[in-house]
Please model this.
Amino acid sequence: MPKPPAAFIYTDQADITELLSQIGSAYTNMKDGSVAPVWSDQAIKDNISAVDFSKPIPLDQALHEAANLMEHGDLRSASARCFGYFNPTSAWPAVVGDILAAVRNPQICVTSHAHASVTMERTIADMVCKKLDMQAGTAHFTSGGSEANETAVLAALCRASSDYIEHGVRAFAKTPSLYVSADSHLAWIKIAKATGLGAAAVRLVPTTGDGRMDAQGLGAMIADDRQSGFYPFMIAATCGTTGASMIDPLHACFEIARDNNIHYHVDAAWAGALIFDKTRLGLLAGIETADSVTIDAHKWLSVPMGAGIIAMRDPSFAANVFSVKTSYMPDGDGQDFYITTNQWSRRFLGLRLWMMLRVVGETGYRDLFDQHFALADYLRTQLPKYGWTVRNTSPLPVIVFDDTKHGLDSQKIADEVERHGRVWLGRVDFEGRSVLRFCTTSYLSTKADIDFLMDALNTARRTLTK
Model:
């Protein structure tokens, strides 16, 4: 019988040694290395195109090669000094869990094939549901917030019309419509296109001038739309907007959804992590009223990409959307993930969060949040001292600000800061202003990194005003 190539088989301790070396180097450079890519765009293309796939090389060499390409060609978005993304440094327990899941490679869409892994993941999902006051609810992991939000849309459509399962949007005599803040994450547009609703189904509700959805305007828009040929089926409030981390009026949105008998979803992709901090649950007040909630573990819970979560108050929501029978899949208990999710073959994503909760625990997460809130509070005190104006009022550790001392363009400031490659922050539009955006998600970030950022901002401004 032919044998698999030797390279398929784990035999060499040198490979593990090289892997651990690369992991150690990556973590070290997350603290002090360049944040911006070292190579130019052309250099990246040249170095990658020079790779000769016709000549296999030893694994340790291939690992070193891949790590070197990423080290010099990628933005180090998980750096302690990358303040522009909800993209944390992956914590070691979660990374170890991810490696274990990759090696054992269970197929967790079928309970009978991976009973322990499925039960472990369901245990984490049940914990999330209970923290959201969905004791009888269900949750599962997704590739990210977009898939989670799309699942909520599909569940809401099924809830609005039982005929949707067989006939899709043709089940509605009027145009189905969903309502989100104008400052929400506009993956909703992509979702509407992908589900056959069309972009016009996404109704963008104006804000009250502070980045929060105008609840009164929401109610009026729904009433007007009913008269104009729309069929409102979902409200999606945001708990921690991407741009400025503002929190929509969750209770008011719930009341409007209840009064109109439509599905109420809360997109808490980033801020939802605070369910693991009982001292800060007040910041999420109203989330417990939602029919469904999105949380991304890979944003503020320090696990690798992508580990989204969709939680639903009524388990039938998911079953209605995805239920299917085939001769080659077991019936199981009716809750197998191939029946209740959009996925068929699926990685054991929940092991990442399982490992964090076993090793770090909720107290560890609370310490992490304490650290990030303290860093944001410190930056808020520093910015005005140097002529920068904070423009948002979010209680969360995200700050948007601009230059008031000279009125410089925010994009030019961001470009100048990033040109030096040692720190990175974002630029967004907020309530008609072009502003700089700061967020902190890395457990490596310290007060010294905030001081470094302030120095970089002030240096950039001096350079631009010469």
In short: The chain is about 45% helix and 15% strand. Residues 12-79 form one domain. The first strand starts at residue 138 and ends at 142. The longest helix spans residues 361-382.
